[in-house]
Specification:
Layout: H1 2-35, E1 49-55, H2 70-84, E2 91-96, H3 99-122, H4 128-142, E3 144-148, E4 164-165, H5 168-171, H6 194-210, H7 212-230, H8 233-257, E5 261-265, E6 276-279, E7 281-282, H9 283-297, E8 309-313, E9 315-317, H10 320-338, H11 356-375, E10 378-380, E11 398-400, H12 406-415, E12 416-417, E13 425-426, E14 431-433, H13 437-450, H14 492-504, H15 508-511, E15 516-520, H16 527-532, E16 537-541, H17 543-560, E17 570-575, E18 578-584, E19 587-590, H18 595-600
Parallel strand pairs: 1-2, 1-3, 3-5, 4-7, 5-6, 6-18, 8-10, 8-14, 9-11, 14-15, 15-16
Antiparallel strand pairs: 12-13, 16-19, 17-18
Helix pairs in contact: 2-17, 3-4, 3-6, 3-8, 9-11, 12-13
Length: about 600
């Protein structure tokens, strides 16, 4: 019985020991999770603040517009800033529909930004707490960058989008009869105390907030007074623009004096020097780009005088009715003031065309094409350009593009020869510079109607576009061939007859061969023509690269107070010995071969837009 009892108690004890062992094993397995230390969160880098001011998109929501618009760039810029580490609350974007509205928006922002600094200055007799607050405010200002694309009147040149810098003649604000009251906004005393400047600006904004209705009434009275004095709506508009520019320049000056950084895009404002200027494109680079790519496509370096290439340059002039009406008004005013009523005619410009953008675009085109015309390896199918042409002959290829049938009429007159009684014969043309995609679209329609066949893919098919046009623009030696001496008696008719004689040697199939057409803007409605080769290429600003460069510049200015050495700049002269570091962006060339990579994959256009 005793042995039985021992065996009976032994079994429960063994079970208890086994259970205890299991509990210890389970508890030991959970121990590491309980003792693991949570990683310490590193302090997030303070990238500062970025405030973006751009014009509102003046182009309608349509497929018939270029991709280069502010409403496309700003979201990409904001996205890039967030990816860089900028807080959502540290990024502000503001659009304005006019220069007056933009200058007011900037002034209001600067006033709100600097008002705390003014209040801190008033409390100088306070303790160390005030000094700490003042230091904190100035540190915040030094980590703030204003990115501004100054509003500008594109004067009807909407076909080239928002990014193109207008020629100086169009950028310059007209100079009305400025009164002493208009001049009061000038920053003629740079040595003025910063605190007083902040105070004046803040007080001005406070007064406007206290009695806005009264101020508006006074503004209306003042505008009526100016209108009566000027007796001209145009003069009044010029005064308003001048006043807005001064307000914008003054506000930016005060911000910069307080430590805020300023980046300007596409253009500057008279009287202000930004920290950095971004140059995205202009008329000359757009024209030069298309000419340079066409030179590559047509293999002009392999052309000879016995086997030349034939091209046409279509130089559209826009908004001519308004320009001519304004010019007529100015002429009448000058005539009345002088008392002389004489008719003025311009034999060199019988059509009365006036378009500074087109003029500068042709200077870029002719810079590239002139050596080939001079060597006789490049001819104009119509004879409008020849060996002795200069960049001043831009009117020979210009036409009023406001007429819906303008391209059809112009091109038909150039590339058809009326040497048959009933059916005009076609002239051979290898390439057409159409300047913008809408002109290129009308060009393609006209060529189809005339009976031209094929596509650009049939011309030098082994050539592919480089990714960035700037890689060879301005760097190629375009004067490899000796330039022949100019003829003694250049004659347009003789040049055209020579072109016709050369073209007559080609058989009918060559005459009808489809030319390579160039354009600009990457309009969505022309994308199917890019795919099928009816339009060989289009050019567009590299929005992704622009956004990336602006983000890097903002980050560098906010974190170090200066530009990083990795950011390449070129000084741009603003006049009076003042220059500004400028970042020059390069244009992209888009054809059927890289359309997907350049426009579809980044999301700028869809497969449906391209007709795929």
């Amino acid at each position: 019985m005793i042995c039985l009892r021992k065996r009976t108690w032994h079994r429960p004890l063994a079970l208890l020991a086994a259970l205890a062992t299991m509990i210890l094993a389970v508890s030991s397995c959970g121990t590491p999770a309980q003792t693991t230390t949570t990683p310490t969160k590193l302090p997030q880098k303070n990238h500062g603040n970025v405030v973006i001011f751009t014009p509102s998109d003046g182009l309608a929501l349509t497929r018939h517009k270029p991709l280069s618009t502010w409403d496309r760039l700003v979201p990409e810029l904001v996205k890039g800033l967030k990816n860089k580490g900028f807080n959502d609350t540290a990024i502000v974007a503001k659009t304005s529909s006019s220069l007056a509205e933009q200058s007011q928006d900037v002034q209001d922002y600067v006033v709100n930004l600097l008002t705390p600094l003014q209040h801190a200055g008033k409390n100088r007799k306070a303790t160390k707490h005030s000094d700490d607050a003042n230091t904190k405010l100035r540190k915040q200002l030094s980590k703030t960058t204003l990115v501004i694309a100054p509003w500008s009147n594109k004067n009807g040149n909407n076909n080239y989008g928002d990014y193109a810098t207008l020629p100086a003649a169009l950028e310059q604000t007209p100079s009305p009869n400025v009164t002493s009251q208009d001049k009061q906004g000038d920053d003629t005393h740079p040595q003025q105390n910063d605190k007083q400047s902040h105070k004046d600006l803040a007080q001005k904004s406070a007064d406007q907030a206290e009695d806005k209705q009264t101020q508006d009434q006074e503004n209306h009275k003042r505008m009526d007074s100016f209108s009566n004095e000027a007796n001209s709506a145009g003069d009044q508009s010029a005064k308003n623009a001048l006043r807005a520019e001064k307000r914008l320049a003054t506000s930016l000056q005060l911000a910069k004096k307080a430590g805020v950084h300023v980046i300007m895009i596409a253009r500057t404002v008279p009287g202000f020097q930004p920290d950095v200027l971004f140059h995205l494109s202009d008329a000359k680079s757009i024209g030069e780009t298309q000419a340079a790519t066409l030179v590559q496509k047509l293999a002009l370096d392999r052309a000879t005088q016995d086997n030349p290439r034939y091209i046409e340059v279509l130089l559209p002039c826009h908004n001519q009715k308004n320009i001519n009406a304004h010019a007529s008004t100015q002429t009448n005013k000058n005539t009345e003031s002088n008392g002389n009523h004489t008719e003025s005619t311009n034999e060199d410009n019988p059509l009365g065309l006036d378009d500074e953008f087109a003029k500068e675009a042709f200077s870029g085109i002719w810079k590239v094409l002139r050596p080939y015309f001079a060597s006789g390896t490049l001819l104009s199918s119509s004879g409008t350009l020849h060996t002795n042409s200069t960049e001043n002959d831009w009117m020979n290829v210009a036409f009023d593009a406001d007429d819906p049938e303008a391209v059809k009429k112009e091109l038909t007159n150039r590339i058809t020869a009326n040497d048959h009684q009933f059916t005009p014969s076609l002239r051979h043309v290898d390439g057409i510079i159409a300047m913008d995609d809408q002109i290129a679209l009308q060009t393609a329609k006209t060529l189809s109607a005339l009976g031209y066949e094929g596509s650009a893919a049939d011309i030098n098919p082994s050539f592919t576009l480089p990714d960035v046009i700037g890689n060879f623009i301005g760097k190629r030696n375009l004067t490899k061939r000796p330039v022949p001496a100019p003829k003694n008696s250049p004659n347009h008719k003789e040049n055209q007859e020579q072109a016709d004689t050369e073209a007559a040697k080609k058989d009918d199939s060559q005459l009808k061969q489809w030319p390579a057409i160039t354009g600009y803007g990457a309009y969505k409605n022309i994308m199917p023509n890019i795919v099928n080769g009816k339009q060989w290429m289009t050019t567009i600003e590299n929005q992704a690269k622009i956004s990336q460069d602006i983000v890097a510049t903002c980050d560098s200015l906010n974190t170090t107070g200066k530009l990083s050495r990795s950011i390449a700049t070129t000084p741009t002269n603003l006049g009076n010995g003042v220059s500004v570091p400028t970042i020059y962006e390069q244009l992209l060339a888009v054809s059927a071969t890289n359309l997907k990579a350049r426009l579809i994959d980044p999301g700028y256009i869809s497969l449906a837009d391209a007709g795929l």
